Amino acid sequence: MEIGLVGLGKMGGNMRERIRRAGHTVVGYDRDPKLADVGSLKELVEALPAPRAVWIMVPAGEATDATVRELSDLLDAGDLVIDGGNSRWTEDVKHAELLKTKDISFVDAGVSGGVWGLQNGYALMVGGEDADIARVQPVFDALKPEGDSGFVHAGGVGAGHFSKMVHNGIEYGIMQSYAEGWELLESAPNVTNVREIFRSWQEGTVIRSWLLDLLVRALDDDEHLSGIRGYADDSGEGRWTVEAGIDLAVPTPAITASLYARFSSRQEDSPQMKAVAALRNQFGGHAVQKES
Fold it and tell me: Which protein family is named in the record (predicted)?
């Protein structure tokens, strides 16, 4: 089949290549002309046969909003838009309603696989109507890993990105657990080979995972991670997962704690701990460290 792809960065560029390797035609547009097949969204739409399918892989928020709005003016009734970025699921509902006024269909696709997706395939969680998903199923099949797993029609519009949001929230918690375990082992006076301990866990243990494999790779590159600053950003999905837990009255203590740990990583000196230290000094006479 033929499909348009908007956004050819680390994810989108590899996705274009994987789809093409499966024998499909991809017309790609990116603001960087070195990456693009066409010079504009208008040219992309004109290059596709009707009914068209256009996949968006741009940053969540204003970039996605602007792309959806522009496509709503360029596409025709019967065309289809897929948002494969990391949009918040509530935005999917708004985009679907906007496009519906033009009789343009909408599918949201949570995509996981990162820079390894070209080689290993991408896990896909999609939301939308059965008929709309069936139209682009050949592209989903090209992107997903080989075998029967790696793809799910999660439900109606928004269900794909909601599923990906929860996936990333779980990812936060797993990574934080590995990180805490690593620091604990590095701090133990009688443990001398932390990297090989993690390597030994890759087979036969209940905590083996691809994230564990990637941590071992990182330790092979820098055994004590001495070249990495202890700073971790968050891309939004962790916050949204915690907020969804609040909205649905579902406790998410592990995911919430892992998100807060990332916030702590951005502070060279914690203002909160200043207050805690001052209180400990006041009620117990505990010593405080002075600013140099």
Answer: Belongs to the 6-phosphogluconate dehydrogenase family.
